[in-house]
Amino acid sequence: MKPASQLSDSPAVHRCASAGGFGLAALWSLYVLTFRQHMHGKRWLIMAALFLLPAGLAVLIRATSPDAAAIEMDFLLAFMFIPQALLPLVALVYASGIINDEQEDQTLTYLLIRPLPKWAIYVVKMLATLTTTILLTAFFTVLTYVAIYIGSGAAGGDVALRCLKAVGIHCLAVATYCCLFGLLSLLTRWALIVGIVYAALFEGLLANMPFGVRLVTVIYYTRLIAYRTMDFKLTQMGRTEDFAAELWKLDVQNDPQLLEHPSLRLCFLVLAVAGLVFTMIAAFLCSQREFHVKTSQAT
């Protein structure tokens, strides 16, 4: 049964309806039911399978190339593959359907006939979406680190701290992507296509070039946070290689303190404010929109 139809029969909603307004109990019911919907079905299984790829690749590399440096696998899998390929995808799949899925399934009717403001419906469903994507991201990021570092001889405390930082950065990124794609879903019917193009063009291509356009990408700020808080240098045969700075186009030779780039605090602020602004705009658009839904007719 769809969550919206379940919500229509919720005692909490009926109590709010009899009181002539909406309350936290009804919103909580909507949050729980949306979260349950996200964590069931083929969508969750597909996302989980995709998130298993980095850990699987780490195991394969460790099995076939025992001498591979753990720090290199860490960088390639946790800070190239996951942020650039998986985080935008999981955010797009979940956030683009916040309202559209209810419309397509014709269950939005059950929400609109209840005393729940449309902006509140959007915000609560977004919170449930953020909870789902953040939990998925955190769990599989930890799993990836376990696959990379288990048996590598690295200090457990250092690995745990590094993993914790990666989890935080990834969760911040996926939350911002969700807010962006949630807004996008209200601006166009082709949110999935537009989102894929955005992720491939901006987050995948332009963010890897030393141009000002990368300032409008999420991954640029998360990379700066990672570079300023984590070590990506590898020393072999007396030569130190800073592969993160090279691949992320950070000119640390002429600007070792990255003074030409946003500070750590500013990076956090940009992503947090951007996510909040995207959500506020989307909630406003949702409150002003007239949704065309089918209603049951007496026979």
Descriptive report:
With about 300 residues, the protein is mostly helical. It has one domain. Helices cover about 70% and strands about 5% of the residues. The protein has helices spanning about 5-10, 10-20, 25-40, 40-65, 70-95, 100-105, 110, 120-150, 155-185, 190-205, 220-230, 245, 265-290; strands at about 235, 240. α2 (about 10-20) runs antiparallel to α3, α8 (about 120-150) runs antiparallel to α13 and α11 (about 220-230) runs antiparallel to α13. The two termini are about 25 Å apart.
- Oligomeric state of the chains in view: single chain
> Percent of residues in helical segments?
over 70%
What is the number of independent domains? 1
The number of helical runs is: 13
Task: Quote the distance from N terminus to C terminus.
Answer: 23 Å
Per DSSP, what share of the residues sits in E-state strands of 2 or more residues? under 5%
The biggest sheet amounts to: 2 strands, antiparallel
Strand ordering within the main sheet: 1-2
Mean pLDDT: 85
Order of helices and strands: HHHHHHHHHHHEEHH
Number of strands: 2
Global morphology: globular
Structural class: mainly alpha
| Uncertain ranges | 1-21
As a whole number of angstroms, the C-alpha radius of gyration is: 22 Å
